[in-house]
Design a protein that fits this description.
Length: about 350
């Protein structure tokens, strides 16, 4: 049974000249600004979604901020006082999925020494955000479908039927309609989760927003590092504006963190901008393919922040160098480094050991 929820004022999109008073961790949709029509369309639709209790499907490339948009929808909705529970659906066995989403009873399996509530139960009266929904197995999709349709589920090893009043938001970077057509994703679940569909544009399509986002990230990063960096030189800004940003907001965050960390004065110079040259790697790969009789598409020229010789490194060497730079930028703090890189602490520890970065 669905609870009746208190009404709330209409959320909207702030004009581009206004400055958000909150951080992304606490922001509602009212705090978001944009000068690009593609992002404004996304924000307008998100505002409409926030006024309903319908499920929301958020589409977009990796690193575009799908999780942040989901959080903002929750905070702008009538469920704002309820919990926002986030769950990454990727790379989980069906048994682990059961335990994580629906909980388990004591003794349900080896090591289950106590009762644990699942994500559906924890999200009662709030919002459950299922990220990477397309990566679920078909078995996992079937289990979620029952909970989504009826609001009912069972803890692993339990006998009673539990119910939860949950607003569902899902996200994926994969072409979900194509997955449905190829039967990689259940059609019935697809139509259950796509109540309102948002597309978060990649950073390369938000050129008018980019200067403001760069400056805001510099201020925020400098504050977190207790540094006096407040500006950026024109040449450095041109490097950033000319980049294609394949890693989107996550890549922007990393690049600015490193730039602020290695800057001694108040202004970031071009020498502090370290960009991964994906276009040069594609050209090198294309040359190899051409030798095998395969013609690779031409890559557009890009602005390089490093000599071409650096771009010819192996991927392992580039990853090792980048991890070392971010680790140094955070003074060896692994928790902050893992957060900046967008990986788990376990993954970071494994890569540090692999590359001998201790």
């Amino acid at each position: 049974m669905t609870q009746s929820l208190p009404k709330r004022g209409r959320p909207g999109v702030r004009p581009a000249h206004e400055t958000p008073a909150t951080t992304p961790d606490t922001a509602t949709l009212d705090a978001y600004v944009s000068a690009d029509e593609c992002m404004l369309r996304c924000l307008r639709l998100a505002s409409m979604a926030a006024r309903t209790d319908l499920p929301v499907l958020v589409l977009g490339e990796s690193g575009t901020g799908k999780t942040v948009i989901a959080q903002a929808i929750h905070r702008s909705s009538a469920r704002t006082e309820g919990p926002f529970v986030s769950f990454n659906s990727a790379a989980l066995s069906d048994t682990l999925l059961d335990s994580q989403l629906f909980g388990h009873e004591k003794g349900a399996f080896t090591g289950a020494d106590r009762q644990v509530k699942g994500k559906f139960e924890l999200a009662h009266a709030g919002t459950l955000f299922l990220d990477e929904i397309a990566d679920l197995s078909l078995t996992g999709q079937a289990k979620i479908l029952r909970a989504v349709e009826d609001g009912e589920f069972e803890r692993l090893g339990g006998e009673g039927i539990l119910r939860a009043d949950v607003r569902l938001i899902t996200a994926t970077c994969h072409p979900l309609r194509a997955f449905v057509a190829s039967r990689q994703f259940r059609q019935d679940l697809f139509y259950r989760i796509k109540g309102i569909t948002l597309f978060v544009p990649p950073l390369r399509e938000r050129r008018r927003d980019l200067p403001r986002m760069i400056r805001r990230e510099i201020v925020r990063t400098a504050k977190s590092m207790a540094k006096t960096v407040t500006g950026i030189e024109e040449d450095a800004l041109k490097l950033l504006l000319g980049h294609s940003w394949p890693g989107n907001l996550r890549e922007l965050n990393q690049v600015i963190h490193v730039a602020v960390a290695v800057t001694d004065g108040d202004t970031i110079g071009a020498e502090a901008i370290i960009l991964d040259n994906f276009e040069m790697e594609a050209d090198a790969a294309g040359m190899g393919a051409a030798g095998n009789g395969v013609v690779a598409p031409a890559s557009p020229p890009s602005v390089l922040s490093q000599p071409p010789a650096v771009a010819m490194e192996t991927l392992d060497a580039m990853e090792s160098r980048h991890i070392a730079a971010v680790l140094s930028a955070h003074g060896g703090n692994k928790r902050q480094t893992a957060k900046t890189l967008g990986v788990s602490r376990t993954t970071l520890d494994r890569k540090i050991a692999r590359y001998g970065l201790e």
